[in-house]
Amino acid sequence: MCRIVPEMTGNMKDITSSAFISLFNEAFKKCFGFELQSSISETEAKHFSNQVLDATGLVIGAKSLKNYAAYALNPDANPENPSVSTMDTLARYVLKAPYTDEVQRKNKEAHYPYWYQYRNSILAEEKQTNVVIESKKPASRNIKWLVIFLGFTILIFIILMFLPAKKQENFSEDFHTVNEDSLNQNGWFIQSKDETWWEKRNELPSHLTLFTLRGDNWKDSTNIPEIKNLLLRKINTGCFTAEIHLDGFVPMQRWQQAGILLMEDSNFSSKCIRLSFAFNDFFGGLNRPKEIIVQGISSNGKNLSNPEEIVHFTVFNIDSGQEKMVTTNLTRSALRIEKNGNHFRFLYAAGQVENFAFKEVLNKDIFIQPKYIGIFALQGFVNDTNYIPAHIKFFSINNIPCN
User: Fold this and answer.
1) What is the pLDDT, as a whole number, of residue 261?
2) Residue 302, pLDDT score
3) Is the peptide bond before 115 cis (omega within 30 degrees of 0)?
4) pLDDT at 263
5) Contact 212/378 with Cβ under 8 angstroms?
């Protein structure tokens, strides 16, 4: 495992601090699937704390984890002095130690073996690095100048050829394996995990199966925003095309739906855009056929205004006796979002075979800068709807040139 180890000055305090920062970085990446790059929110810290508790049986408070993140990013500006028990808990999380609790640890492992095992491994790596450096013989003067010349040549080439290019993000996922470690390695992390239903994610081979559990990404008078088993990953580009393919997803009750979620943060406090296949039978008292729609929702965060329905496109009307035909025509379905600066296109496809053509349902400027993209299934905050599976076969996000 690759570790980022800060430079050590030789005294024990510096060694311990360096080892702890390396340990925290590894624990953060194990939890979220990406490197620590900026301070973390309270919601992310609570999620981190719950993951450590679930894996180890031991508690590290969310506030402490938030402070440790600031310390790992800038030790001089944010001094911290974590206890040995805290460092041992993080080491147990990283090293996949057996599940325990504070009483068992105090009785059997009060010497905190996992922390010292981890710290000693850092010391061994540092010592080995120093030995390698000291064992190298100085190169001759001619070779030294040749290396310098080649280095400058390569640097100029990089500046001329690659510096103007924008950061690329081209990623696709076929869900041949939905092992949680594999998902984390591919940049995914799970929010609001419901263990019972998350364990069913491999129900259909080579698919990620999510269920339309109770929840939504905006609050109502009695519920806070929450989507159970929301699978997220970071977005590292400003202009992109994102796509999701589903097999056999046929919502038939209010408000069953599945699709793509764009978010400015990971806790629904800022702007979101949701695009989904959904069921609708609410017409304000009018007598109309039930329908399966492509729905687009724009919301401004849990403390701001009510959400806006920006897309309501009827894919199928469900007249009595035509349910089988609708199911057949939703054997394969897909959603696509294209973002170019502030300009968005929303598209869908559906049919019995995979080589379907996408159809545009909205072309609109929306002022949002999403930092996360998610895959979800939900049924809103209703209690009389069955949970149905959404079998997700494919996901991709690809960088496109920004105009």
Assistant:
1) 98
2) 59
3) no
4) 96
5) yes
* pLDDT, tens digit, 9 for 90 and up, residues 182-198: 999 999 999 999 999 99
- The answer, yes or no, to whether residue 64 has pLDDT greater than 50, is yes
Specify whether the CB–CB gap between 188 and 233 falls below 8 A: yes
Q: Are strands 240-247 and 230-234 parallel, antiparallel or unpaired?
A: unpaired
Structure tokens at 66: 């938030």
What whole-number distance in Å separates Cα of residue 216 and Cα of residue 295?
Answer: 14
- Residue pair 6/18 in contact (Cβ under 8 Å)? The answer is yes
Smallest Cα–Cα separation from 241: which of 355, 401, 369, 129?
401
Provide the pLDDT confidence category of residue 181 given band limits of 50, 70 and 90. Answer: very high
- Contacts of residue 368, defined as CB under 8 A and 6 or more positions apart, other chains included, come to 262, 264, 271, 272, 273, 298, 342
In this structure, what token pair is assigned to residue 274?
């949701």
Type of residue numbered 269: S
Provide the terminal-to-terminal Cα distance of the chain, rounded to the nearest Å.
Answer: 40
Compute the distance between CA of residue 73 and CA of residue 25 in angstroms, rounded to an integer.
9
Phi-psi region of 113 (alpha: psi -120 to 50; beta: other; left: phi over 0): alpha
Pairing of the two strands 240-247 and 359-365: unpaired
